[in-house]
């Protein structure tokens, strides 16, 4: 059965003279990610309120980081602009990095992430205007979506809205010891991959949809949150610290950032709550937050 995503992909490929033959959906969470084996290339389809201007800025930033600054970032397909299918659907095209088969090669870890973020935070201002970091904007959009509306009760929606306001107020009162700069915005280990095009292969950072200008601590909290909510042990944190050279727990704003990251785990399962595993994850996370349980290990999606 041909889906709306399939149709958007074919239309975008036709506009950019790319071959969609054998296209394979390899990931579908915030975006739908297709492999175009005939090119080879990656197509990412953003559906919702993601502005084309922001997606274009993402491509400019990653191209600058990789090609001018030598930073290990995934790169857009050279010379291929994004395609606006309609007001809510935009397709971008990216370099394809074949990944090792499961069990082959070195695993990607917090050590790789710590080094990459250390290097990223030393880069300067990219050659395009950047949106300032806005905490929990993805959650706000998810609450406005049709899927998000159907997944939770009105009372739960109000609780989340109030909690977002409270955490934002706490964040606005913080002093940020690491200062502000270019940040990835969603820097967790799941956004690492191998650049198998380089020799030798190297770890690179992908999924730059949340790239912005903001406090650098925002990029650090996912590593500590992985230990609190997803069962990572102390060595996961220590390996990151070894490479980044900073322990986030020494800062008074640590608990506030953990609260923010907790809430940031709701948009994905909210949007896809019609799928039973996502519905179960949403219920587990929301119930833990509402009960004040700060240590429950969560289902990973």
TrEMBL record:
<dbReference type="GO" id="GO:0016301">
    <property type="term" value="F:kinase activity"/>
</dbReference>
<dbReference type="InterPro" id="IPR002575">
    <property type="entry name" value="Aminoglycoside_PTrfase"/>
</dbReference>
<keyword id="KW-0808">Transferase</keyword>
<keyword id="KW-0418">Kinase</keyword>
<dbReference type="Pfam" id="PF01636">
    <property type="entry name" value="APH"/>
</dbReference>
<dbReference type="InterPro" id="IPR011009">
    <property type="entry name" value="Kinase-like_dom_sf"/>
</dbReference>
<feature type="domain" description="Aminoglycoside phosphotransferase">
    <location>
        <begin position="28"/>
        <end position="253"/>
    </location>
</feature>
<protein>
    <submittedName>
        <fullName>Ser/Thr protein kinase RdoA (MazF antagonist)</fullName>
    </submittedName>
</protein>
């Amino acid at each position: 059965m041909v889906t709306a995503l399939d149709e958007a992909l074919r239309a975008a490929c036709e506009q950019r003279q790319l071959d969609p033959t054998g296209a394979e959906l390899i990931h579908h969470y915030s975006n739908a990610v297709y492999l175009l084996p005939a090119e080879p290339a990656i197509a990412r389809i953003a559906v919702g309120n993601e502005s084309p201007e922001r997606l274009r800025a993402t491509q400019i930033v990653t191209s600058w980081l990789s090609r001018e600054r030598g930073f290990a970032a995934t790169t857009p397909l050279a010379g291929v602009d994004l395609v606006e299918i309609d007001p809510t659907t935009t397709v971008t095209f990216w370099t394809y990095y074949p990944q090792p088969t499961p069990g082959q090669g070195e695993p990607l870890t917090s050590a790789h992430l710590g080094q990459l973020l250390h290097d990223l935070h030393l880069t300067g201002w990219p050659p395009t205007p950047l949106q300032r970091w806005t905490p929990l904007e993805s959650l706000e959009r998810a609450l406005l979506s049709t899927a998000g509306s159907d997944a939770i009760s009105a009372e739960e929606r109000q609780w989340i809205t109030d909690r977002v306001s409270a955490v934002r107020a706490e964040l606005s009162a913080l002093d940020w010891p690491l200062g502000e700069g270019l940040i990835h915005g969603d820097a967790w280990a799941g956004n690492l991959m191998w650049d198998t095009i380089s020799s030798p292969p190297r770890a690179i950072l992908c999924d730059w949809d949340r790239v912005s200008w903001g406090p650098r601590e925002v990029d650090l909290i996912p590593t500590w949150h992985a230990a609190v909510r997803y069962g990572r042990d102390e060595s996961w944190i220590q390996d990151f610290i070894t490479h980044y050279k900073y322990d986030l727990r020494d800062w008074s704003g640590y608990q506030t950032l953990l609260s923010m990251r907790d809430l940031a785990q709701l948009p994905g399962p909210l949007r896809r709550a019609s799928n039973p595993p996502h519905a179960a994850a949403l219920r587990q996370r929301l119930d833990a937050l509402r009960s004040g349980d700060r240590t429950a290990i969560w289902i990973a999606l």
